[in-house]
Design brief:
single chain, mainly alpha, two-stranded parallel ribbon, 24 helices
Length: 568
């Protein structure tokens, strides 16, 4: 397949928005069509499309491009590079777990075959499924024997075994859907395939459980294992995000900001008459929660309070549709195991105990979602935070949503926690402690997530850090770590809250200095440009001339050091 984008090389201004729409459609079309887990065809087709767009960018007449097109061309170039690296990483991780489940590649090929409309005869498919089941059983016997030997030469690392178990779960689910397409409808397919497919599905589920419990060491379904990506991958992702610092430097930033938070926590503790026992002060705050049935009303009132504060201080334009457009949902008990606190976006999803939860979990959830923690969270999730982002992304340069980065998404919301603190949003020691708890949490996230992916901390040590250094309830700490390393978030996501916030805060200082933008002008301008690496956003706001092949480099932490104080 020699892919050519269905867009001519531009020779007129403002061509990039249309081109990016075609790029997004090309990529999402392939990802939707070849939806099998670890699909080889998807990887190959995406690689071909990315190469075609790279060649298309080479044909651009750079000198003829307007400023916005230059920015979009640079962002697309960087995105293509990042996506190609991610495809290579996916291939390497698949090859790493292949010895544990050598039969998976053939099953994935079977799933891809259906999407290519090239189904083989049912009898041949039955032979393939039966062969996969036999290889699975042989692989399991070998692993069981190796577990009982002294050398244990072929046992994979726990993280690889857990990755393989997750792959087996995904393949089993995909096979069930694949079988459902023809089973019962095609008599010959049903006659040949039903039994070996059912037998294989059961074997896949049993083998996944074996890998988790006996090889990866997971004692129960709630155990946290994770899958560290390593120093090389972290460095590549930092480069793609235009973060000019190494993991060790970011860890040092997190530790530095944690020191500032602890100083402020001690100050609030003293105001409450508890001296330097900030944990006692935190415990007092945790006990101030609403009774069952009233959390939704609290969220409503806190949302209105945050909007009033932003408007009273003329910080951000909030259209009427945005003020009234968000909605509220409640989080299920199972989901709270992974998300013990609120989530936000187009809706705020409220975390609070329900009647069927165990007594201890109820108490921990109520303490973890107290009035003062919630006051610091609602504005983060709604306005001026994630909901405001969601509202503006759909309206201003929406084609740039493909350039999403957690440093912009979570950095904006963390920045607002900083800015609201500076403007006096917390009025009492209890409210300051509520905000400081979350800031300490963000600082700890930088340290534990990067050290985990560097192989320097275990998941359990991450939980212990949140309990001992931040003051989490153990259940909420486990939920946060489970969410961080469960496989649904990229490696840099957790550190992006604080680091993106520091970036956005430095940009605010730079752009709103003497003779610069006003508060509302700055915040509106950020929302109007949509998401991207913040270094590129800075170049756009500064109206820098962007050059071909030269992504902006910005040492944002230098601005903070020049100001001589923490911005946590």
């Amino acid at each position: 397949m020699d892919y050519r984008p269905s867009v001519a090389a531009p020779h007129e201004p403002e061509v990039m928005p249309g081109a990016l729409a075609v790029f997004e459609a090309d990529v999402s079309g392939i990802e939707t069509q070849f939806d099998a887990p670890w699909s080889v065809v998807r990887r190959e087709r995406l690689a071909d499309v990315l190469e075609g767009w790279r060649r298309w960018l080479d044909d651009l007449r750079w000198d003829d491009l307007v400023a916005s097109d230059r920015a979009d061309a640079l962002l697309l170039e960087n995105l293509i590079k990042a996506r190609r690296e991610a495809l290579a990483q996916e291939r390497r991780r698949f090859e790493e777990m292949a010895p544990v489940c050598p039969f998976v590649a053939d099953l994935v090929a079977l799933l891809d075959q259906r999407r290519l409309l090239a189904d083989e005869p049912p009898q041949a498919t039955a032979h393939r499924l039966d062969a996969a089941c036999r290889v699975l059983q042989e692989t399991r016997r070998a692993l069981e024997m190796d577990r009982e030997s002294a050398e244990r030469t072929t046992l994979p690392r726990p993280t690889v075994a857990n990755r393989a178990a997750r792959a087996l779960d995904a393949v089993k689910e995909a096979l069930d859907k694949w079988r459902g397409f023809r089973s019962g409808y095609d008599p010959e397919f049903t006659w040949w395939v039903e039994e070996p497919c059912t037998r294989l599905g059961n074997a896949l589920g049993d083998f996944a459980g074996f890998l988790r419990r006996q090889v990866a060491g997971a004692e129960d379904e709630d155990a946290i294992i994770g899958d560290p990506v390593g120093a090389e991958r972290l460095a590549a992702e930092l480069e793609d995000a235009l973060i000019p610092y190494g993991a060790d430097q970011l860890i040092a930033m997190g530790a530095r900001e944690m020191e500032w938070c602890l100083d402020q926590m001690l100050s609030a503790s003293r105001e409450l008459g508890l001296g330097d026992d900030w944990r006692a002060a935190l415990d007092r705050v945790k006990e101030d929660h609403v009774p069952p049935g009233e959390q939704g009303l609290l969220v409503r009132d806190l949302a209105r309070e945050a909007v009033a504060f932003v408007e009273d201080h003329d910080l951000l334009t909030i259209p009427t549709l945005a003020r009234e457009g968000w909605r509220m949902e409640m989080m299920s008990p199972d989901r709270q195991k992974v998300n013990p606190f609120f989530l936000g976006g187009e809706a705020i999803i409220v975390s609070y105990p329900t009647n069927e939860m165990e007594h201890e979990r109820k108490l921990m959830s109520m303490r973890g979602n107290n009035r003062h923690f919630s006051r610091a969270t609602v504005q983060h999730e709604l306005i001026p935070g994630h909901y405001m982002q969601h509202f503006c992304q759909a309206r201003y340069r929406p084609y740039r949503r493909m350039f999403h980065t957690p440093f912009w998404t979570e950095g904006w919301t963390l920045y607002w926690e900083m800015r609201l603190w500076e403007l006096g949003f917390p009025r009492t020691p209890e409210e300051r402690i509520g905000m400081l708890f979350w800031r300490m949490h963000r600082c700890a996230r930088v340290v534990f997530s990067l050290r985990f992916h560097l192989g320097e901390m275990s998941a359990q040590e991450c939980v212990d850090m949140l309990v001992e250094q931040v003051g989490h309830e153990r259940s909420t700490a486990e939920g946060e770590v489970r969410r961080s390393f469960g496989g649904d978030y990229p490696a840099l996501y957790q550190c992006a809250y604080l680091i993106g916030g520091l970036q956005m805060r430095a940009l605010h200082r730079e752009m709103t200095g003497p003779g610069g933008m006003g508060e509302r002008q700055f915040h509106d301008a950020v929302m109007a440009e949509n998401c991207m690496p913040i270094a590129v956003l800075r170049s756009i706001l500064r109206r820098d001339r962007l050059e071909r092949g030269r992504l902006p480099q910005w040492r944002f932490d230098d601005i903070q050091r020049e100001c001589g104080k923490s911005v946590a």
